[in-house]
Amino acid sequence: MAGVLGLRDVTVRRGTTTILDGVTWDVADSERWVVLGPNGAGKTTLLQIAAGRMHPTSGTAEVLGERLGAVDVFELRPRIGVASAALADRISPSEKVVDVVLTAAYGMTGRWRERYEALDHERARTLLDVFGVGRFADRAFGTLSEGERKRVQIARALMTDPELLLLDEPAAGLDLGGREELVAALTELALDRRSPVLVLVTHHVEEVPAGFTHGLLLRDGRVEAAGTLADVLAEEPLSRTFGLDLEVERRGDRWAARSRR
Ligand SMILES: Nc1ncnc2c1ncn2[C@@H]1O[C@H](COP(=O)(O)OP(=O)(O)OP(=O)(O)O)[C@@H](O)[C@H]1O
User: Locate the ABC transporter domain: which residues (predicted)?
Assistant: First the structure.
């Protein structure tokens, strides 16, 4: 598939607020994108368009070759995996971890009278193992640490074998060890050619895993820069995006940024 995402001049307005302003963005098969920008830049809104969960006020958006507005979003959504704090909030703390993953196959949170095939059970447990949380499969979701919950959410997002995986701030709230473990898991995912196309939203260049290929910088709903990571995670575009004079360092496959002042 050539075009996984194709946004043309996408604008989202709510009342008098313009949340996204003329966003044009192309994501192709096998690419791994990072979306970076300060608080309120419009990152989550952009991800909602990519997830087929919001329509542009103007402009056009194609997701997995389907034009939003002309496709049945209920057919489109199972092809897209999403992990976000908003979705995690809808998971009952008493829900068994394996069920959190399993219910994704039915596009819903909460286990409620469905019948699951043995293969689905096996896949859910395998995904939990892949993300290092297999030993918690039979525990209640609410008893896990923040980092463990994040990994369960990614396993859940992968349950439907999606073509596109959207991760909204997966490292938010993690301590240093938790962040590094998550970054390592995402690096493995990014480097695996069988993985879906990945889009990761973050505030911090330190959270960009190795294996990611492209970056989009957003500020005030506008694209400040988009392209290969090496081009985009440079001092000039990053400083412009965050409104700070930034010093950016690349060490091996990871980045770090700090203010010069
Ligand atoms: N329904 C709405 N009505 C008015 N403004 C909204 C609405 N939804 C979002 N916004 C505003 O749009 C802006 C962008 O929000 P969004 O959540 O997309 O940003 P973000 O880059 O993900 O921010 P953060 O990094 O803080 O999570 C914010 O200023 C937010 O307050």
Answer: 5-245
Domains in the chain, CATH or no CATH each: 3-259 (3.40.50.300)
Give alpha helix (H) positions in the chain: 43-50, 73-76, 85-88, 97-102, 118-130, 146-158, 176-191, 229-232, 235-242
- Ligand 1 site residues, Cβ closer than 6 angstroms: 14-15, 17, 19, 37, 39-45, 203
d(CA 129, CA 155): 9
How high is the ipTM of this complex?
Answer: 0.95
Taking 90 as the threshold, does the pLDDT of residue 19 lie above it?
yes
Pocket test for ligand 1, best of 17, 89, 199, 218 (most atoms within 8 A of CB): 17
- What the block records as the tokens of 255 is 């980045």
Ligand 1 centre distance from Cα of residue 221 (Å): 9
Q: What does the angle CA 223 – CA 229 – CA 232 come to, to the nearest 5 degrees?
A: 40
34 contacts 200 by C-beta, under 8 angstroms: yes
Phi then psi for residue 164, to 5 deg, are -140, 130
Residue 1: pLDDT band (50, 70, 90) is very low
Q: Ligand 1 centre and the CA of 44: distance in Å?
A: 7
Expressed in angstroms and rounded, the spacing between residue 53 Cα and the centre of ligand 1 is 15
Give the CA dihedral 256, 203, 26, 15, nearest 10 degrees: -160
Give 204 Cα–ligand 1 centroid separation in angstroms: 18
